């Protein structure tokens, strides 16, 4: 069995098959038989876990297992406590209410590599960084949640899946999970 983590750069699709002129996982990962356990949209960056372990892949992607995913979202303007409470208790998005999430305002900008291309900067509009921990993974959920509370996401980076951290992995790079990470993921997702 193979278990990899990959720092998906902005603009890369979370799939191996080509689509239009987008880069895909095939442009970065040459390990046969592995597939992404979950997705990040092309506009999002960060941690993808890839494996050829179908059971683990199912447990990571099936919402009933409620595994936590941690995101850092740069949002337009500085959210007030009311918006943060809405994110924590669940937000109406389209025709469903999101599950409660852990949400906090980061005191300082996280140490992340520059994005290419950079986000748009508006001179008179400040930005803030939020940390959100979700236990469901609907399509573009973080972006829809922050937009629903009037603080649209400008940049989104997934930094953890359960206890597996992106840490110092550079965009476009991948590595095998360590023995300790394999043990942690086995105990938390196979229980």
Description:
This protein folds into 2 domains: 1-66 and 164-191, Pseudouridine synthase I, catalytic domain, N-terminal subdomain (Alpha-Beta Plaits), CATH 3.30.70.580; 68-161, Alpha-L RNA-binding motif (Alpha-Beta Plaits, 2-Layer Sandwich). It is globular and about 50 Å long. Strands 1, 2, 3, 4, 7, 8, 9, 10 and 11 form a 9-stranded mixed beta sheet that branches. It has a two-stranded antiparallel ribbon with strand order 5-6. Helix content is 19%, strand content 28%. With 191 residues, the protein is of the alpha+beta class. The chain has 4 helices and 11 strands. The model has no long low-confidence stretch (mean pLDDT 90). Strand 2 and strand 3 form a beta hairpin.
List the helices and strands and how they pair.
Layout: E1 3-8, E2 35-36, E3 45-51, H1 54-61, E4 69-76, H2 81-89, E5 92-93, E6 96-97, E7 102-105, E8 127-134, H3 141-148, E9 153-161, E10 164-165, E11 174-176, H4 179-189
Parallel strand pairs: 3-9
Antiparallel strand pairs: 1-3, 1-11, 2-3, 4-8, 4-9, 5-6, 7-8, 9-10
Mean pLDDT: 90
For the report, how would you describe the main beta sheet?
A: 9 strands, mixed
SS-based structural class? alpha+beta
The SSE string, one letter per element, is EEEHEHEEEEHEEEH
CATH superfamily of the largest domain: Pseudouridine synthase I, catalytic domain, N-terminal subdomain
- Pick out the low-confidence regions: none
Q: Provide a count of the helices.
A: 4
The number of domains: 2
**CA-CA gap between termini:** 19 Å
- The tally of beta strands, per DSSP, is 11
What is the overall shape?
Answer: globular
The CATH topology of the largest domain comes to Alpha-Beta Plaits
Helix share bin: 10-25%
Q: Please report which band the strand proportion falls in: under 5%, 5-15%, 15-25%, 25-35%, 35-45% or over 45%.
A: 25-35%
């Amino acid at each position: 069995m193979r278990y990899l983590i990959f720092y998906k750069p902005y603009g890369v699709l979370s799939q191996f098959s080509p689509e239009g002129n987008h880069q895909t996982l095939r442009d970065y990962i040459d390990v046969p038989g592995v597939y992404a356990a979950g997705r990040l949209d092309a506009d999002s960056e960060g941690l993808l876990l890839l494996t050829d372990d179908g059971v683990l892949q199912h447990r990571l992607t099936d919402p009933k297992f409620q595994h936590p995913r941690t995101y850092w979202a740069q949002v337009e303007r500085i959210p007030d406590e009311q918006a943060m409470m809405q994110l924590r208790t669940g937000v109406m998005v389209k025709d469903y209410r999101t599950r409660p999430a852990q949400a906090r305002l980061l005191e300082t900008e996280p140490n992340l590599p520059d994005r290419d291309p950079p986000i748009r900067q508006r001179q008179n509009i400040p930005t803030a960084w939020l940390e959100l921990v979700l236990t469901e993974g609907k399509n573009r959920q973080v972006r829809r949640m922050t937009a629903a509370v009037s603080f649209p996401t400008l940049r989104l980076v997934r930094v953890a899946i359960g206890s597996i951290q992106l840490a110092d992995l550079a965009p476009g790079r991948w590595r095998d999970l360590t023995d300790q990470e394999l043990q942690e993921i086995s105990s938390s997702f196979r229980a």
